[in-house]
Amino acid sequence: MGLTKKRFIADFQAEALHLFADSLENLSPMQQYQALAFLVKGYYAKDWAQTKADYDHHQQKQVYYFSIEFLPGRLLASNLLNLGIKDTVEAGLKQLDIDIPDLYAQEGDPGLGNGGLGRLASAFLDSMAADGMAGNGNGIRYQYGLFKQRFVDGYQVELPDDWLRDPYVWETRKENRAVIVRFGGSVYLTPCDNGGLEPVYQDTDDVLAVPYDIAMVGHHNHMVNTMRLWSAEPVPGHAHSLAEKSRINAITQILYPDDSDTAGQELRLRQEYFFTSAGIQSIITHYRRFHQDLHLLPNFVAIHINDTHPAMAVLELMRVLLDDGGLSWEEAWQITVQTLSYTNHTLMAEALETWPEEMFARLMPRLYQIAQEVDHRFRQTYTPRFGGELIQRCAPIADGYLRMAYLAVIGSHAVNGVAKIHSELLKSSVLKDLYTIFPERFNNKTNGITPRRWVQVANPELSELIDSAIDTGWRSDPSLLVPLAAHLHDEKFLKALHTAKKANKEKLAAIIFDQLGIEVSTNAIFDVQIKRLHAYKRQLLHVFGILEAYLAIKNGENRPSRVHVFGAKAAPSYRYAKSVIRLINAVADLVNNDPDCKGKLAVAFLPNYGVSLGERIIPAADISEQISMAGTEASGTSNMKLMANGALTLATLDGANIEIKDAAGEDAMAMFGLTTPEVAQLKASGQYSARAIYEADPTLHRVVDMLTDGTIPGITTEGREIQDELLVYNDTYLVLADFRSYVEASHKLDALWQDPIAWAQAALKNIAASGQFSADYTVARYGRDIWDVLPATPVGHGGE
């Protein structure tokens, strides 16, 4: 949009007066932020309304992306960038003598997600808008986020994440689009005049689903899509007791409630049906404003199931088509399969969501009836061809449980993994039987990230350096980063790259000192691992690498200085992960308070990791730790973000790490560890002995002993628990098996660090190759291959 600095200042002053009846200089930083955010919302409001009107007028096919979590991060800087007015606004703020970083910092992170799943969903919404694709998000408006993480004596403590305490400027309540979601009660089928069966509901527990819409602003294209989040409220006019109101409010009160007991499981199931039903009803209501024939639904609507949480979309769309649309089963099923698609995000069978039949039938009786019929017809159709044993293994209902991943595959026309190796492993492992039946449905769509946020917003120093080398075309088409490789032997550019990195490390060092009171050297290697705390992600292996370096320093060995930076949350009920957090903090206390390590080794575990903290850590990283056991990480996206900012990846051949290696070159990263086939063979053989490896490697022996011999103070219980997992329970995720290879790969990076030009060249190779991992290209491939929704804005090749 065209905006002058003078016009912006006048608009900003008027908005402040309108909102707070006072002048800008008298407002608090939070009030100044709110005034600016409301002003920006006004700037794109016309485009938002026009985009929706254009979609309806031209009857464009629309994508509805269902996800139980979204992690959009702060939106002010991103919206300014996408509107093309960020530089103008910041110039105006500077003239008004407003502290720009402090103003941006007033915005909190929406508590709508936890990790990679939610961040990917938000990246896709951002990219659909940038590509000019008609795309919508569908999720839950959680009153509280997962939790606000604090460390007390090294232990994780969970505090409420009351992110809605202040009004959330970017949302718009749409009460006129509310729908009713029915739980419980009983339902029976009665014959109707057309020969079909009509459901009759009795004693249902009705909940009002009220949508809150958030704009997803396209990049310089005047297109604004919508993320719709649903809030649970009592139905107006119904008599609700306090207990009933509390039960309704609980549905959208908190992200991922503890499901370690039956009540928690029921709440999660209610959450999943709530946002899925509300979304499906909303879609069909909108569709029927323009079309009478439900048979044409797949021509105008694509519904995508992001992981298994919204898998009930299969059953709910069937319910609406059968009960409200009056279609036959065969008609409804054909429409459902053509409309739905599904992304799988896990290779671990235990992570595939299942629900007890009794619980499901009690909470959603009509959906359970439909699920039984889906199961019956699936068995009837495919048992003669594939045999009862295979069908029993992959049927949607078996052994007293509804199996949601299997339901999603059976009810969708397309199923994808999120990295090349992940997609292949789905076919040979967790979804092997369904691949045998439906091979044509399976495909790969490697995950992607949004360089606009992770480079342009988060790393202006690097962005401006890239502009100076190859102009600004890469900002709209990241595939144009490739020509940066021409500067691999430009010593001046490589030194400037080092300077940009140093500036970001100084910013992060200030945060570390402010939050933890630790002084770190910005001349050190910043070695970063930022991801959900889980045993398979192997933060423990990283800790063992730190302890190996600690012992070497104590023995007088001279190594390049390293600062190890962690960011991770553990699920409140995941005891082992919380023990690893305690261990990391105890190791940090040991290392950071040892005079022998001063200036040589430091550990910083920054609490409450999220999008905004990631925007400060990632640009400063020199090493990106992607060290999951091969065959466990579906894709990963932090690997892509760190790569795009010039970090060198220290990684196993897992998930998208393999594609990063293929893109940047093996010499631009450090690979280690067992491969996926080697892991599978070792597990299958039954020959793996963690204790034998422990006994054979003196350094590893010493490191493991440190868990329980008092060297690391304050971890008597946690150290024993972790040591038992390794030696008594035989090291489930092969930490000991990969330890020596990991240390050797880390030493290779130490050696490379001694040659600053060679290091900068490796960093530059990563940056130049990172464009292909832009989510702009990923969603364009989804649109072309799965959704049949093409971008309105031309999209670069993205490495294809």
UniProtKB/TrEMBL annotation:
It is an enzyme of class 2 (transferase). Its EC number is 2.4.1.1. It holds the Pfam family Phosphorylase. The keyword Amino-acid biosynthesis does not apply. Belongs to the glycogen phosphorylase family. Phosphorylase is an important allosteric enzyme in carbohydrate metabolism. Enzymes from different sources differ in their regulatory mechanisms and in their natural substrates. However, all known phosphorylases share catalytic and structural properties. This is Alpha-1,4 glucan phosphorylase. It comes from Lacticaseibacillus manihotivorans DSM 13343 = JCM 12514.
